[in-house]
Amino acid sequence: MKVITFPGQGTPVALNVFRSYLAERSSAFRAVFWDRGRIDVARTIEQRPADPASIAACSFLLFDLYRRSPKGSAEEILFLGHSLGELGCLGAGNRLFGLPETMEIAHLRNELMVNAAGGRKFELWAISAPRSENLERELQPWLRVADASLANVNSRVQCVVTVPQDPTADRKTTPQWAADLALQVPRCRIQRLENPYNIPFHNREILQSIEEPLLDFMWQKLKSQGLHTSRELEHPIISNLNGKRITGVEEALESFAKSSCNIVNFVACCDTLKSLGVSKAVHIGPGGVIGKLMRRNCKLEKSQEWDAIEDVVKEIGELHASSPLE
C-alpha cells in the first residue's frame, strides 16, 4: 500500500524549481503546465510563491503530472496532507475540486484565519528535543502558563507553536519565553519559522469561527461542479484531526474544516499508516518537508520526492509507455 502526501502552507514554492517545470518541453509537462487554462495559474504562482493558493496550485499541478504517469497504478493508495495539504487530498487526490476551486478554497481559508486574528500578529516556532520521548507531553506544563498555543505535533521530538508577536522585540535575539523553555526541556532547539500572514495556525480559541464558513464554501464549490451528491472518496484520507482513516466525502470535508482550527496531530496520522501496513510513499511538492517528517515517524520500504525536475523527468521517462493512474 502506498501513501501520497501533500505539504502545508509553510512550504512556499521555490521559483527556480517551478520555472524548471515550465522550461521542460516534454509532452507530459506541456499538458500540465502549458494548458491554455493554466497559464494564468503559472503566472500567479510566480508572482506570489508563498501565497497558500499558489502552494495548493503547485501541488495540484504536480499531482496531475504524477497521475498522468502510471507509477503504482496497480497499488492501493491513500492520501495524507499536512494542514493545507489536506485540501490537496480532497481536490487533486480525490478530484472533488478542480484547480480553480482548490485555489479559491485555499485563499478563503487564509483570509478567514487572518480576519479571525482581528489584527493581532503571531509568530510560528518549531521546537525540537532529540532526547525527548514525548515532546508534546513535556510541553504541557509550559503551555498552561505561557502565552503560546500548540499548532503541530510533527513527531515525538518536534512540535510547532504559535506565540503573539512582540512588536518591540528584536527578531535577531532569542525571546524570553524561548530562553525559559530551553531551561525546562533538555537540549531543546527553538527555531523561528516563516509566517508571512502572521496567522495563529491551529489555535482553536482564535480560529474556531472559521470552521463553518469554510465548510459551507466547500459545499458550494461541490454543488457548482455537480459533485455535491458524492458520498464516497475515490481514495481514503488520513485525517490531521485524529489520524483516522476517512472514506466518506462529508466526513473528509468536515475533517479539513475542523483540522484547520485544531492541532495537526501528524504523529497520530503516521501511527495509522503503520497500522495499515503502508510501505511506500510519494511526497508531492512543493518542497521536501513532509518527506523528512515521514522518515522521522515511519519506516518505509520506499520513499520518493515528486518535486525536483530531475527526479520527475526520470519517472515520466521510465513510465511513459504505461497506462495512467486511475
Report what the structure shows.
It is an enzyme of class 2 (transferase). Its EC number is 2.3.1.39. GO terms for molecular function: [acyl-carrier-protein] S-malonyltransferase activity. The radius of gyration is 19 Å and the shape is globular. The chain has two domains: 2-116 and 205-319, Malonyl-Coenzyme A Acyl Carrier Protein, domain 2 (3-Layer(aba) Sandwich), CATH 3.40.366.10; 122-198, Malonyl-CoA ACP transacylase, ACP-binding (Alpha-Beta Plaits, 2-Layer Sandwich), CATH 3.30.70. The protein has helices at 15-23, 27-33, 39-47, 52-68, 85-93, 99-116, 135-145, 176-184, 204-207, 211-224, 249-259, 266-276, 289-297, 309-319, and strands at residues 2-6, 77-81, 122-128, 149-155, 158-164, 189-193, 232-238, 245-248, 264-265, 280-284, 302-306. Helix 4 packs across helix 5 and helix 4 (52-68) packs antiparallel against helix 6. The strands form three sheets. Strands 6-3-5-4-9 form a five-stranded mixed beta sheet. The chain has a four-stranded parallel beta sheet with strand order 2-1-10-11, sandwiched between helices. It has a two-stranded antiparallel sheet with strand order 7-8. It is 46% helix and 18% strand. Strand 7 and strand 8 (245-248) form a beta hairpin. With 326 residues, the protein is α/β, with parallel strands linked by helices.
